[in-house]
Amino acid sequence: MKLKKLEILGFKSFKDKTLLDFSSGISAVVGPNGCGKSNIVDAIRWVMGEQRVTTLRGKKMEDVIFNGSDDSLPVGMAEVSLTLENGGHQFSGKYSGLKEVTVSRRMFREGETEYYINKAPCRLLDIRELFMDAGIGVRTYSIVEQERVARLIEAKPEERRQFIEEAAGIMKYKSRKESAVRKMESTRRNITRLSDIISEVKTQLNSTRRQAKKAERFKALKKNIKESRLALSLQIYSQFASEEAALKEKYEILESRCIEAETNLKSREAAMEDTRADIAETESAIMRLQEMFYTIKNDISVKEQGI
Q1: What letter does residue 110 receive in the DSSP assignment?
Q2: Where are the alpha helices (DSSP H) in the chain?
Q3: How far apart are CA 33 and CA 49, in angstroms?
Q4: What is the pTM of this model?
Q5: Which of 8, 26, 62, 174 is deepest in the core (most CB within 10 A)?
Q6: How far is 163 from 135, CA to CA, in rounded Å?
Q7: Residue 163 Cα distances to 10, 51, 145, 152, angstroms
Q8: Residue 93, exposed/middle/buried by CB under 10 A (0-12, 13-18, 19+)?
Q9: How far apart are CA 109 and CA 140, in angstroms?
Q10: Which range, of 144-153, 222-231, 264-273, 298-307, averages the lowest pLDDT?
Q11: What is the average pLDDT value for the chain, to the nearest integer?
Q12: Dist. CA 298–CA 159, nearest whole Å
């Protein structure tokens, strides 16, 4: 596996997009102090999945994002893409038929991190296993920063064993084993906690049973009360219905009598009107007779005077 090119954007001192082409013949990157050589190594380590902030020479992971300078404003994202070519050897897994593989890591200032292999989203574990299959890692011999050569030479047998295991490509399986051991330990703690919970639940079971029996008695009493209230309500409703029927019958009788009385009243009022008409006619006749009487009486008086 051979490093072909490295693209850096917004990572530490690389504000603008920078492309490093490691073509055939390049064996070193040189430059004066402060030009960013160490940042290139940090970028390679970071895109390979490094999570230790101290190894990246920072206090928090957001420090890898370009934080601005006298001439430039800060940026909101850091992105590094690492392109590898097979160098005559096949990549592992589903990438075995490819000649090149590009691994990318992108981080936003809000803290969100994204990982890609050939521009397809993936997990950090996928990237680590890709490099482990090739015998490359971020913590052993594959990346050697300044002042580490002496430590490699003076390494203890246990540390040399780590270098050999990484070069042999078995670190992936050790990593999986460690992950499985952590999961087993977590499961063991969960089982212990579950046993404690079961024991605590058993101590509370009798009390819960008594409370359950009380709840059942309460439920039965509540049901009886509800049924009694329904029976009483039904009885009262039946009584009110009977009273309503009797009152309705009385009302119908009274209403019939009222209608009959109104009919009699109207007939009597009609008879009264007829009587009043007869009286008026009689009074008119009396007035006419009185007028005739006074006329005759005057005539008698006149004739008596004439006699």
Answers
A1: T
A2: 37-47, 124-133, 149-153, 157-168, 171-306
A3: 26
A4: 0.51
A5: 8
A6: 9
A7: 32, 20, 15, 9
A8: exposed
A9: 29
A10: 144-153
A11: 85
A12: 169
Which letter does DSSP use for residue 91 in this model? Answer: P
**6 secondary structure, DSSP code:** E
Three-state SS at 121? strand
User: What gap in Å lies between CA 265 and CA 260, rounded to an integer?
Assistant: 8
H/E stretch holding 19: strand 18-21
Scanning the structure block, which residue is given the tokens 């009597």? Answer: 268
pLDDT in tens, 20-73: 888 777 667 788 887 888 888 889 989 988 888 888 888 899 989 998 888 889
Q: Beta 2-9 vs 113-117: how paired, if at all?
A: unpaired
Phi, psi of 158 (to 5 degrees): -65, -40
Within its chain, how far is the Cα of 126 from the centroid? 30
CA end-to-end span of the chain, whole Å? 178
pLDDT tens digits along 236-272: 999 999 999 999 999 999 999 999 999 999 999 999 9
Complete edge-to-edge strand list for the sheet that includes strand 113-117: 18-21, 2-9, 77-85, 100-108, 113-117, 120-122
* Cβ pair 49, 129 in contact under 8 A: no
Give me 288's structure tokens.
């006419």
Q: Which residue has the higher pLDDT, 95 or 249?
A: 249
- Secondary structure class of 63 (helix, strand, coil): helix
Region 156-166 average pLDDT: 70
Per-residue pLDDT band for 141 (boundaries 50, 70, 90) equals very low
> For residue 208, what are its two tokens?
């819960």
